[in-house]
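User: Show me a protein chain along with its predicted structure.
Assistant: Here is one chain, sequence first, then structure tokens.
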Amino acid sequence: MRAIMVMFDSLNRHMLPPYGCDWIHAPNFDRLAKRTVTFDNSYICSMPCMPARRDLHTGRPNFLHRAWGPLEPFDDSVPRLLRQNGASSHLISDHYHYWEDGGATYHTQYETWQFCRGQEGDPWMGQVAPVPPETPYGQNASTTAMVAQDRINRQFMRSEGGQPQTRTFAAGLDFLRRNGGDDNWFLQIETFDPHEPFFTQRHYQDLYPELIGDRALGLMDWPRYGPVEEPPEIVRQCRGHYAALLSMCDARLGDILDEMDRQQLWEDTMLVVWTDHGFLLGEHNLWAKGQMPWYREQANTPFFVWDPRCGISGERRASLVQPSIDLGPTLLDFFGMETTADMLGRPLAATVASDAAVREAGLFGSHGGQVNVTDGRYVYMRAAADESNGPLYNYTLMPTHMRGSFPPDEIATAEQVEPFSFTKGCRPLRTVVDRPSPQHEYGTLLFDQETDPQQQEPLQEPVVETRMVGHLRDLMQECDAPEEQYRRLGL
């Protein structure tokens, strides 16, 4: 058996042709939908980047117990389980967070890995003299080290072939050409794109002249996180740059589909295409993610699966799935392995084949923010019960934030507490989280996505809310959520 996972970051479902968008140039996503099963009720789980990848490895939600961080010593890892059971696992990625302190335990779970450098503010090319800013707009005008490094990195990407996404997919094609005739392997091709900054070559931008418009306005391809404060023409330009990068992603996806055609890999090779979350480009008058509720544009994600065991293509599925926790069990099942006792995701073979349901409701959110639940129609966003947004703790044996270890004062007050059901007898450290989530100010929200698909009118429906609170409690109990999370949410 063989499996290919193509993973994008910040890929918007509502801007893809298979999900109804009629202005984006993305013919290969249409082609993909004709060769796979397309899921309509696919939802995120733990957010953002590395929490979603911890879900992928462990097959369970983790956002109730800690924020961004590495895999823990007690965590199961699907790529590790695959290689331990005779299936080679190989990661190719330009997602540089894997190689920071807060993600450095992920890539080593694979048998082999490759890193293509240069995305965002990856500390890649050394240059002492700064590069002048190109624009008065948006985060690109910032003097932060990340933006300054991005300006340096772009000098070494004057052609499409020099961009990290292109190099990542080229390495994936090389793997397929060298290993396509062999058996028992899993290949994960993961690109940071279309995550911001939305950097592309001119020929992709020229696909959207009505949006990008007059370049004399300056370059706006890297929005701030938060409210939209820019004039409409700059918002349009930013959406145009995102669209251009999405079209580049589409072209690289086409390269993989071409290679599968050439080698006839469809006969016995699984293909999964998915993303961790979407991205706001002015919807709800907001940019980006994390600072606001996980609205549908971010939470209801594109998801495509080809499973050669059933051979079904060109169909859609309505069942509620959560790829970040379901894909690990699905891969184990595909390679003839059992899920572990700690995994809460479900194998999706029957769902791909016949739309068999795997869950009644799904939990999602980010540490310290609203805790959300959906049944596929309603979305319930439960906020903290008071302004303190507490009590709130991190539980970890890997005291590391995104780009560095916990500072001594954070560790000095840590306590070792009793094990959770999934920590395999290990007693984790508990540290206080002393910063409120910006999501808190939005309060508790309930939406009916059937009657209000853009989530513009929160409901006041006590009967529905009571039912959704029941789902929320059940799923928190299944996750063995810390007791204080119930108190924080007023449950």
